[in-house]
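Quick one: Patatin from Abeliophyllum distichum, structure tokens please.
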Amino acid sequence: MTAAVSTTSMLQFESSMDVDKLTYEIFSILENKFLFGYEDDPKFSVTKEHQGNPNAHVADFFDVVAGAGVGGILAGLLFTRGKDGEPMFGAEQALKFIVENCRKFSQKSPGGVFQRVFRPSKAEKVLKKVFGELTLKDTLKPVLIPCYDLSTGAPFLFSRADALEMDGCDFKIEGVCGATITNKAVDLKSIDGRTKILAVGGGVAMNNPTAAAITHVLNNKQEFPLCKGVEDLLVVSLANGESDAGVGSIMSTPAAFVRIAGDGAADMVDQAVSMAFGESRRNNYIRIQGNGIVSEKQIKNNKENRNMLMIAEEMLAQKNVESVLFSGKKLVEKTNLEKLEMIGGELIKEEERRKKSIVPTVVLKVQGGSPSPRSSSATTLSTLSSMSVLG
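--- reply ---
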């Protein structure tokens, strides 16, 4: 199984973190309910205990994670190996970290060009405290986190697979996370000092890294030898909501234009991926998107500032939207919640298949050791991204 995470860049990080919390609330729901079952619903009665691991994490069910912007930090938190060999953070702990430290990552800009300006010194201190000297080699699964390299004028994709191949592609996790959220140029060097980049946020380079994650899996025959095409993938995308930047205002800020451009690029990736899956998109490619249901403006107008979990559940209750080639976007019969429930069931079934299969279709690279086989009858790809900041 593979997982990809995409989210808004720091340029879009100019609004209340409450909006971004929606994605993490949804991810927490996915971890605590869909993967391990509902206590009050026998239909989803498969629990952590039933899986034989009461401390199971989302990372245990996926093979690849890709994340841009804040999603890159989330990917690092959820898929970096802790001292006990398990993921450093669960979904709830990752959410708490993001919310508690968002003000240290950015501050108000008096000039107003970007309402929030990246604070590299404070962000570096926070990320350094969490990740220490850990590098891409210390991640549990294949990790893909993009930034934009100003020195080459092209996107740069940090990759665990590449890091395990050569030190020139290995970077400290704290530097990788800082690079993918920054809206200021940040110098970054590889562990051996041979690779140098001048990085700005991953959301500028690759706001929706789903295609990059799929490309990585399909072309990485060493780790995914039996994955022949998209029919062997299950893609779940918790995607950016549609931006309402500039609505009701004649003048829009540069940051708003960046958001709009990012939304457009993410939608293009969505259309391309949907086209690639063809008729199998209904079961193999799932995209969960806010579609403008909840914006920062709506939250601000609500004096009681409703519980984010309630808002997330409202979004999940909406009809799912899928992209159809030459037909635009269409509402489907199932809700976002029902789609996630289906995925939760498929993830558990896949894990059971892997336990019984004697043929390893996923052979993950391991630092300083032999590849780690993970038997399965299919490879699953999940894409997670936070809601874009609306308003």
